[in-house]
Specification:
single chain; alpha/beta; Rossmann fold; two-stranded parallel ribbon; 15% strand; binds nicotinamide-adenine-dinucleotide; binds thymidine-5'-diphosphate
Amino acid sequence: MHNLLITGGAGFIGSNFVEYLFNRYPDYRVVVYDKLTYAGRLENLERFQSHHHFTFVQGDIADPDTLGKTIEIYAIDTLVNFAAETHVDRSIMAPDAFIHTDVHGTYVLLEAVKAYQLERALFVSTDEVYGHIPHGMSSVEDDALKPRSPYAASKAGGEHLVYAYHITYNLPVIVTRGTNNIGPYQYPEKAVPLFITNAIDDIPLPIYGDGRQMRDYQYVMDHCEGIDVALHHGHFGEAYNIGSGVETENMVMAHAILDLLGKPHSLIQHVTDRAGHDRRYSVKTDKISTLGWQSQHTFEEAIEKTVRWYVGNQDWWRPLKSGEYLDYYRKQYVERGSGSLTA
Ligand code: NAD
Ligand code: TYD
């Protein structure tokens, strides 16, 4: 394993994973292959551009020709796929791109793993494939997948293909199911960076419904470490949950952000709930723990580091909150009664 193709590496988790790889494995050669959608940013990769083991190729994972050429030219032996459409609210408004990338794109990647006989391929998935989890229960990897949003369903569709290709063609593939990530370089449409950047500017924080929904918010580098462990030590054909094991209510998360920034709780604005909103996700992580992985950050540490990063990196996120973002924000929030990006 030396020449890695990191698909979707210009996004949030993928770019953090590249940083993780260069720190941990200075000998690896990394090719980031990314379509550069609204969520994929070359700015996220700027710090690697002068690294002599780093290359960027712009391409769609669903385009077999560009993908195949890239694998050939760079003698790729290992694939880690982060490329996906990832935002649940966008999947409710317009599912098409989710099917294109998360289902069809996964199929094209699997065909490439087969055709070019890659040594191994890891597909990054999500705990959302399990669907809503009632209190007192936590998902284990053999549980049935019951996705309830177009995003989660498209990720589950991709996962089913991965497993089927392992069984049918004996492909050396692994799946990870991570919980919600927070940390540097997350596009400010997701709840945590949206709330932080709004709060910095004294703009209301739109909380869906009662805000009592629960998520396991893990620090992105913990997730990257889990992906690394699964990539190097995981068993082919297996899935691995990765999460902190601690679930936090959205209201508690919002209060923590406001407290860290010294902003009033009156910035919280309850708005119309998300359609089909999963109230809780929760995973057991015993399986990946047996491979030697453990979460390193508490929720308090993760949220504090994340807030600090957004305070210190306004040059990164301010330009993002314009153009396409404003159109999206208006569409998403205006009917909820929170459509303005001014206080
Ligand atoms: P992101 O939206 O920040 O980045 C996605 C990246 O994929 C972008 O760089 C985008 O340009 C690229 N991309 C999209 N469509 C593409 C295509 N057709 N071809 C090539 N590139 C394409 O996403 P993220 O939060 O970094 O998530 C990365 C992966 O981790 C996704 O597979 C997601 O489902 C999974 N995941 C995310 C979280 C989370 O909390 N963010 C949690 C668990 C799992
Ligand atoms: P999000 O970051 O979109 O991730 P998920 O994929 O888990 O839905 O949302 C995290 C939680 O925050 C989820 O319960 C929905 C909620 N939420 C809000 O209350 N307001 C918002 O503006 C957003 C984007 C999310």
